[in-house]
């Protein structure tokens, strides 16, 4: 039985993020991942700004995206986000972007918890509780 | 006789910054202005990173751009930059972007010198000397 | 009695758009202007994608922004947008960005209607009706 | 004996692409990858604009980045790029970003050749010749 929780967020594609082919430029999906991640943390009750106040930052150490089908200007994109692993000092988040039920993009990011001085920390216990349902 | 000095910088337009029409997206010219401004400061002998170490930041308080003709993907753009006014606490920088001699964009930014705490400072004397030739 | 109509839109500031000072990078407000402009057109009943299908594009010929107070990561920004002038071939849109009632940014853009071939057109009659209440 | 060729490109980090932590925002490295990729194609004698004129586009179907150490504002980054595989309809490009010899970022992108109508094409023979030395 999966203990992880799925969070959902929606973004409207601005003109700024679409390229000559009429497709969302490939790097911009990582911005959507970040927006969805921030909403996930807010909904889970631990906004990123709150985490930062506690002296914890979550830099990305790995990012991946697979592009199945392009998103266009003005599309309403649905982003499903879930934390699938917290292991050692690493935290893995997976993403699926759909439009009207059609899968456009999948991806993941891997993060570490670090102090403002850059020291790697053990993942904040709240993260485990909030995202993994433990 | 104008005492101000013109600085020149060149940027190649990446795919990331071009829109569906095949034109550089309008907000991105302000990034080119910033890149040219940073090179102007480096060439003048006061890199922005150096200014920051001295506790001075140069936030923008006003920005303007007039779009005459579009730039495209892979264009090599020439940006002429000069500081045209340092008055009270304000510093005005003007920009002209050309491609093969054709004028594409003109614009300006207005900056104030502030401390890291946000206190408005008198413009750094070096700025006056370096940019206005005084 | 002003006949123009004010449209309202809200954006959440992503991490991607905030600079070292912790402020929204100055060029990014022009993206917020564009997002608000697109919503204005959708609400007015003439989405930009619909206008494009009719062979009309609205490139920006002038853009201005005055920065009063900085926006930060995760801020919820309110953008008030109105079309203040349609004259000759030009259309002027004004913007005000606030956070919790405090004014952060004001600005405007000027647009022309052009065909896909770049020919300047008289402003689409719907634009006058929808935005100016005429 | 490796037949692939390494291409080198340099970018200066603008203020626009650096986040609150003072690090280049994670999505922006994909822009550097694209800039290096475009220079690789130009140097190899087949600029991307030329490829497009021949009716071939190279959309990204997969993108990956591993972040070892952060880049900062004004850093001069060196990007080594090579095409490591052309197989079936897919083309794989690998990237390494260094600063003063220190490795900051590694990554790759996978591309397909498509027609303007979106039809997947066999990789352009010139690509094989230029990048793989075959």
In words, what does this structure look like?
The structure is a homotetramer of 134-residue chains. Chain A is of the alpha+beta class and 134 residues long. Chain A has one domain (7-132): Thiol Ester Dehydrase, Chain A. Helix content of chain A is 23%, strand content 38%. Chain A contains 3 helices and 6 strands; from the N terminus they run βααβββββα. The first copy, chain A, has helices at residues 28-44, 48-53, 125-132; strands at residues 7-12, 60-67, 76-87, 90-99, 102-114, 120-121. In chain A, strands 1, 2, 3, 4, 5 and 6 form a 6-stranded antiparallel beta sheet that branches. In chain A, β4 (90-99) and β5 (102-114) form a beta hairpin. The first copy, chain A, starts with 6 loop residues before the first strand and ends with a helix. The mean pLDDT of chain A is 91. Chains in contact: A-B, A-C, A-D, B-C, B-D, C-D. β2 (60-67) of chain B pairs antiparallel with β2 (60-67) of chain C.
Structure described in brief:
Chain A is built from 3 helices and 6 strands; from the N terminus they run βααβββββα. The first copy, chain A, has 134 residues and is an alpha+beta fold.
Salient structural properties:
six-stranded antiparallel beta sheet; 134 residues; homotetramer; Thiol Ester Dehydrase, Chain A; elongated; alpha+beta; 3 helices
